[in-house]
Amino acid sequence: MNLFSPVEICPNLEPGVRIGDGWITIAYSDRPGDCGRTRYRYTIIRKDRPDLVYENLQSGVGVSRGLRDGLLSLLAFLVDAADGCRYYTMQGKKDPDPAGWPDDLCEWLYLHSEDLEYVSMSVDDNMTCIQE
Phi/psi of residue 129, each to 5°? Predict the structure, then answer.
């Protein structure tokens, strides 16, 4: 596998992107996806916090173009989640947190929302940032 900016090998030895003081990594899950879809495992690594590992991201039905597309989908989701966290923070409300994430992750996403957007655009612009 060849990786090009902004994708790099992260502390857990998986491809991912640096976001502020942490990383977001992507890999194929060992669990099969539903209806022939590809299931991805992603990890959110933050300084002085336990790593968060999830396997709830899947490709579209019949569409599996690899880790780059999985990473793009994940980053788009996290950008939207950061916007939701920003909205609830500005309103002085607690985020309803439909993903079941810890409260401090919502805060981390909110604090790094601009980094998430920039990295998402960079991955989108570089079709060959992950060559499998």
Answer: -70, -25
Contact call for residues 28 and 39 (beta carbons, < 8 A): yes
- Which residues are registered as beta bridge partners of 130? 3
Beta bridge partners of 125: none
Structure tokens at 53: 């590992």
pLDDT tens sequence across 21-70: 999 999 999 999 888 899 999 999 999 899 999 998 999 887 767 999 99
**Which tokens hold the place of 31?**
């669990």
- 3-state SS assignment for residue 13: coil
Instruction: Return all residues near 50 (Cβ < 8 A) that are at least 6 apart.
Output: none
Provide the token pair at 52: 């968060």
CB atoms within 10 A of CB 9: 13
Distances (CA, A) of 96 to 47, 61, 62, 79: 24, 29, 32, 16
CB 123 within 8 A of CB 72: yes
Q: What is the CA radius of gyration of the chain?
A: 15
Using a cut of 0.85, tell me whether the model's pTM lies above it: yes
Structure tokens, 119: 């990295």
